[in-house]
Design goal:
This protein is mainly alpha-helical and about 400 residues long. Among the domains are: about 110 residues, Alpha Horseshoe (Serine Threonine Protein Phosphatase 5, Tetratricopeptide repeat); about 100 residues, Tetratricopeptide repeat domain (Serine Threonine Protein Phosphatase 5, Tetratricopeptide repeat, Alpha Horseshoe), CATH 1.25.40.10. The protein has 22 helices and no strands. Helix 3 runs antiparallel to helix 4, helix 5 runs antiparallel to helix 6 and helix 15 packs parallel to helix 17. The longest helix has about 35 residues.
C-alpha cells in the first residue's frame, strides 16, 4: 500500500526548478529581472548617445555613427540615437541612410518633430547633391510636417522657404520667410533668404531693404554687404554696389564673392581693367570659381583681347564642362575673331546643353549668315525669336 502511494507520487512530481518557475510570483520576478536588464540597456544607450553627440560636435563622424549604432543595438527604441545618427549621415553626405534613420525615429514616435526636421534636411541636401532629380517635394512635405507639429518653428519655415527657392517658387519662399520673421523679427537668415527671393523677381527695393535689415542685425556681416551689392548693381546703382563690396572686403578680406561682385559692378561701369583685377583676386581666393573665370573672360573680350578671353573661357569650361554660358561666350569671342566655324561649334554645344538658349540660336544664326548659309541662319533666327530673343 505504501509502495503504491509512493510510486504514484513520484510519477506525478515536477522538478523543483520548474515548479518554482511556474509560480505566478516567480514569473513576476523573471519579468522584473528582464525589466532591470532593459533599464540598464537604456541607461547605457543614453550614455552612448551622449558620446556620439560629443564626437559629432568634434566632427568625428564615423566614431559618432559607431556610438549611435551601438546605442540602437542596446535599445532599438532609442529615437534620439536614430536622429543623431541621421544627422551624422547627412554630414557625411549619406542622405539615403539619414532618411532611413529619421523614418525609423518617426515610426517609433510619430510626434518626434526633430526627426521630421532632420529628414527634411536630408531630402533637401540630397536634392542639392542630385539637383537634376529635383528631389524637393519630399523635403517640403517633411518641413510642412515639422510646422504642423510646431507652428512656431522658425527654422522649418526658413528651410522650407529655401527649398521653395531652389524650385523657383519665389512667392512661396517669400511667404515662408515672412512668417519666420513674424515669429522672430530678429531672425537674420530669414531676411537673407527673403532678400534673395526678391532679387530673383527683380524687386530690388525690397531686396535692398531686407539686406539692410541683416546688416542692422549683424553690422560686420561681410556676406550681407555682398548680397546687398548685387541688388544695387542689378538696380543700376553701380557706385553703391562697389561701396558695399568694398565694405564686405574690409570685414572679410578672403570673401571671394565680394571681389567677384565688385568686379561685376566695375564691368557694368565700363572699367574693364579694374573688373579684371577683382575677378583675378576672386580666382586667387577660389581657384575653382567658374563664374569668375567666365566674367573675367567677358571683360577681356570687351577690352578687345580676344585670345586671352578664349583662353579664360576654356578654363571655365574645364572647371564646368556643362557650363552653357561659357560655350556661348567663347563662341562670341571666336565670332569676333572671324573664326565662324569654331563659333558655330561653341554655339551648338551651348544649345545642346540648354536647348532653350535663345541667344545661342541667334549667335549661331549670325555666324551662319556671315558664312553665307542663309537657310541655316534664318532657321536659327526663327528659333531664337520663338524662344523670346529680342536683339
Amino acid at each position: 500500500m505504501n509502495e503504491n502511494t509512493g510510486s504514484t507520487s513520484r510519477s506525478l512530481s515536477v522538478p523543483r526548478s520548474q515548479s518554482l518557475a511556474l509560480r505566478p510570483s516567480n514569473l513576476l520576478v523573471t519579468r522584473g529581472l528582464q525589466d532591470i536588464a532593459q533599464f540598464g540597456n537604456r541607461a547605457r544607450a543614453n550614455e552612448l548617445v551622449k558620446l556620439g553627440s560629443t564626437c559629432y560636435s568634434e566632427w568625428e563622424l564615423e566614431k559618432a555613427i559607431e556610438y549611435y549604432t551601438e546605442a540602437i543595438r542596446l535599445d532599438p527604441k532609442c529615437t534620439v540615437a536614430y536622429d543623431g545618427r541621421g544627422d551624422a549621415y547627412i554630414a557625411m553626405g549619406e542622405y539615403d541612410s539619414a532618411i532611413a534613420d529619421c523614418a525609423e525615429a518617426i515610426r517609433l514616435d510619430p510626434n518626434y518633430a526633430l526627426a521630421y526636421l532632420v529628414r527634411g534636411q536630408a531630402y533637401n541636401w540630397r536634392g542639392c547633391a542630385y539637383i537634376q532629380t529635383h528631389d524637393y517635394d519630399r523635403a517640403i512635405a517633411d518641413y510642412t510636417e515639422v510646422i504642423r507639429l510646431n507652428p512656431k518653428n522658425v527654422h522649418a519655415y526658413r528651410q522650407r522657404s529655401w527649398t521653395y527657392f531652389r524650385k523657383g517658387d519665389y512667392a512661396r519662399a517669400i511667404a515662408d520667410c515672412t512668417e519666420a520673421i513674424r515669429l522672430d523679427p530678429e531672425y537674420a537668415r530669414a531676411y537673407y533668404n527673403r532678400g534673395n527671393a526678391y532679387l530673383h523677381i527683380h524687386d530690388y527695393d525690397r531686396a535692398i531693404a531686407d539686406d539692410t535689415e541683416v546688416i542692422r542685425l549683424n553690422p560686420k556681416d561681410a556676406y550681407a554687404y555682398n548680397f546687398r551689392s548685387r541688388a544695387y548693381r542689378e538696380a543700376g546703382d553701380y557706385d553703391l554696389a562697389i561701396a558695399d563690396c568694398t565694405e564686405a572686403i574690409r570685414f572679410d578680406p578672403e570673401c571671394a564673392p565680394a571681389y567677384y561682385n565688385r568686379g561685376y559692378a566695375y564691368d557694368d561701369k565700363g572699367d574693364y581693367d579694374q573688373a579684371i583685377t577683382d575677378y583675378t583676386e576672386a580666382i586667387r581666393l577660389d581657384p575653382k570659381y567658374a563664374s569668375a573665370y567666365l566674367n573675367r573672360a567677358i571683360a577681356y573680350r570687351k577690352a578687345g583681347d580676344y585670345d586671352r578671353a578664349i583662353a579664360v573661357f576654356t578654363e571655365a569650361i574645364r572647371l564646368d564642362p556643362e557650363y552653357a554660358r561659357a560655350y556661348y561666350n567663347r563662341g562670341n569671342a571666336y565670332d569676333d575673331k572671324g573664326d565662324y566655324d569654331q563659333a558655330i561649334a561653341d554655339y551648338t554645344e551651348a544649345i545642346r546643353l540648354d536647348p532653350k538658349y535663345a541667344s545661342a540660336y541667334y549667335g549661331r544664326g549670325y555666324a551662319y549668315l556671315k558664312k553665307g548659309d542663309r537657310a541655316k541662319a534664318e532657321s536659327d533666327f526663327a528659333e531664337a525669336k520663338r524662344l523670346g530673343y529680342k536683339p
